[in-house]
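## Example pair
The file below holds two records. Each record gives the amino-acid sequence first, followed by its structure token line.
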Amino acid sequence: MKIKENIQLCLIIGSIFLVLYILFAANPLGQELQLAPEWTINIKDRQFFLEEGATAQVQIPFKMGQNMGYFTPEGKLTLLETFPFRATISSTYRAPYSQNSSVIPFYSFDSNTPVGEIHGSGFPFFTENGFFLFGVGGGAIAQYDFSGNKLWNFENYVPIISFSSSPSGVALGYADGTVLVFSPTGELLQTFEPGGSTYPVILGVALSDSGQQLASVSGIDRQRFVLAQEKNGLTKVVYHQYLEMDQKEPVLVQFSQDEEYVYYGSSIGIGILDCSSLENRIIKLEGKVISVKEVPSLDLVCVLTKNKVGYSVYFIEGFGNLIGGFHFNADTSFISVKDDSLYVGKDNSISKIKIKFE
């Protein structure tokens, strides 16, 4: 009798399990990240250059080691230049330069003839918002228009450690723990001191596109991340977080395109703060965060990190959901994103990877 009851119990449990399995199996499983390699080119191989006379509507800038140039989403190089000392490049302009240059010629993305000159000594930096020249002593900055004319300049005796530009202006982080914010015309809008540390150096700073949010990583000995927001004409600290360990070199700080999140480098990975709810998450990654690229159509962020033996690319979905990554050995690298494709540079090669969820 006991055996018969046990058999009946097993049959009942088995029937329930079968019904539940059928019900849940009928629902679609969650989509998984899929990476589909499309092409790889060698930047030193002439076969990968665009044919003479052909034109390209989209050109993506890159800089690896002592090489810089542009390539197309189809895997064709439109320009490759080797520079002996340093160089800066944006989507439309580039400039190789030496430390002792007093005149720095710059070139458009499709020309080997200078289209203008920057008159001054220092270190130029091109962004999508303008040309900037940092003085040799480290404390001065000047902005130029796209014709090489100086728009404004500012000099300080304290070295600039971190820098951010956006359509709303420029933020400078100094070694003495001060952040200065300038308008696009060079007007000093704000002086901000995050404080809270023994040595208040500004290791990373970011100014949002709207100019209403400012974020920084500052200090050694009680290093912290701070978010300040402008409300009713006043800028106030709305969030701060002491970090687990000190970083003693410049740190990446970057707002998302929609300004909903701010990303910042941590000693153990990457931090992500929701700028509305002020919820903060730290995601453990291997290596130092050196680049963050968004794929808005997929609600995805690609993160490039560097460690002692090479590089890693990680994929973060939504608000802090780490869903994958890969590692590779290289001396130099970069990542770029266009539409739903990731471009990864590795020494002398560039690869295109299609990102999708299936």
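Second record, same layout:
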Amino acid sequence: MKKEIVVSEIVISIAAVVAILLIAVQVNAFVLFALVLFVPIVFYRKQKHKDETDSSHLLSLEEATTQYGEPDDCVVADATRGNETAGCILVYRRERMMVVAGEPVSIDNITDVTTVNMATPYTVGQYQLVLTTKEPGREYIRMEVGMDAGWAKDVATEVIDAIKAVRKDEA
């Protein structure tokens, strides 16, 4: 399947480059010069990210309970998605970790818990729970919690209380 995707990407890329070159020759020499610089940059960026590990696999609730056992606590962040990892936070006290939005996170690495309103002057946005961590590449873990500011505050308070309880057990 990956080979089919790679072959189709190459064919589409070559066709696009040929079409753009034909247009560039007709339009302007500056466009041709820009393409000569732009195309190698695109291929360089693809090569640069080629060797990165695939960390996009998020745990489902079943996988988390199979891997870590039954959670000590579950904080429902988004009531509409409470049966999914995107809607709840599983707390494991003995392991000193949480599964937040499908990602296992060590409680020792969490430095801050806050809520953010994602609304703009032109759109209505949801509130997000934002966990700040010490892990490089995963400094912020965001989770949608709905449209209610009170609910978002309550969810953040529950998460902070769960973290405090785990840290208190350590002392």
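Notes on the second record: Confidence is low (pLDDT under 50) at residues 51-55. Residues 2-27 form the longest helix (26 residues).
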